[in-house]
């Protein structure tokens, strides 16, 4: 009997404290999702000069929606659903495809990309505000099929790195063959960058995209500062570019 009374007292106390906390925070602004490197204050570091004056430039993209897609036996059905919604097909091995699609109830035109991760896995990126809508529509079109859609937006950051000295920077950062004849535009690989695993996509001969786990974002940021010291590093932001 005593244990039951103790439980009631504990539950009442917890309820009272919860109500007090809710009242205390009622007037505050709602939480805002931030990129993993927002604390670096890239906006204040951004230098509005020509990129040609620096050997390397770095940009952290705005918070981006990321959706992991897994399918083996039902790959055809997943491809049909993605093609119908986005107008692009699942990419071939070690490739990334991009396109424009109408997303959301308002049919907002936006850029979407799909990266090959493994024989039965792909990583889809889209504006974070439309990702839930996109995930829901994909699930509706593949109901009853052995597929998986997982929102991993909060676990990564997307960096763009480029410049005239990009090849030299990459050579000291990764063991993957980044020669332009091998690492061509549209190619995506999962590899080590310094001591962190990243998904690296060649955008052009002088630009790459790095998808970095949130827990390694600070490490990669510090590495890029040190590795680009001899070339000069320019910080860009989506607003500046």
Detailed description of the structure:
The protein is an alpha+beta fold and 241 residues long. The chain has a single domain (38-236), classed as Probable tRNA modification gtpase trme, domain 1 (Gyrase A, domain 2, 2-Layer Sandwich). Helix content is 30%, strand content 32%. It has helices at 2-24, 42-45, 75-86, 128-141, 166-173, 217-227; strands at 56-60, 64-71, 96-103, 108-118, 121-127, 147-151, 156-162, 188-193, 196-204, 207-213, 233-236. The model is unreliable at 1-10 (pLDDT under 50).
CATH architecture: 2-Layer Sandwich
Task: Supply the CATH superfamily name.
Answer: Probable tRNA modification gtpase trme, domain 1
CATH class call: Alpha Beta
The figure for the number of domains is 1
**Which term fits the overall shape?**
globular
> How much of the polypeptide forms β-strand, as a percent range?
25-35%
Biggest β-sheet, characterized?
6 strands, mixed
Order of helices and strands: HHEEHEEEHEEHEEEHE
Helicity, in percent?
A: 25-40%
- CATH T-level topology: Gyrase A, domain 2
- Alpha-carbon distance between the two ends: 68 Å
Task: Report low-confidence residues grouped into runs of 5 or more.
Answer: 1-10
**What is the averaged pLDDT score?**
88
How many helical stretches?
6
Number of strands: 11
Broad structural category: alpha+beta
């Amino acid at each position: 009997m005593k244990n039951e009374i103790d439980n009631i007292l504990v539950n009442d106390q917890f309820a009272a404290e919860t109500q007090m906390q809710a009242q205390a925070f009622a007037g505050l602004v709602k939480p805002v999702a931030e990129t993993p490197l927002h604390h670096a204050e890239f906006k204040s570091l951004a230098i509005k000069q020509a990129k040609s004056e620096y050997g390397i430039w770095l940009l952290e993209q705005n918070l981006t929606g990321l959706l992991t897609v897994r399918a083996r036996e039902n790959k055809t059905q997943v491809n049909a659903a993605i093609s119908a919604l986005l107008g692009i097909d699942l990419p071939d091995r070690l490739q990334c495809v991009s396109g424009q699609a109408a997303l959301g109830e308002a049919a907002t035109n936006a850029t979407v990309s799909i990266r090959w991760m493994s024989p039965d896995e792909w990583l889809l990126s889209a504006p974070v505000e439309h990702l839930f809508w996109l995930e829901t529509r994909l699930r509706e079109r593949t109901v009853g099929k052995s597929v998986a859609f997982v929102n991993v937006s909060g676990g990564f950051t997307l960096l763009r790195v480029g410049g005239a000295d990009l090849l030299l920077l990459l050579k000291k950062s990764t063991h993957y063959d980044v020669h332009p004849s091998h690492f061509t535009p549209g190619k995506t690989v999962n590899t080590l960058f310094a001591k962190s695993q990243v998904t690296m996509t060649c955008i052009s001969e002088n630009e790459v995209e790095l998808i970095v786990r949130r827990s390694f974002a600070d490490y990669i940021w510090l590495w890029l500062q040190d590795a680009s010291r001899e070339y000069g590093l320019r910080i860009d932001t989506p607003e500046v570019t």
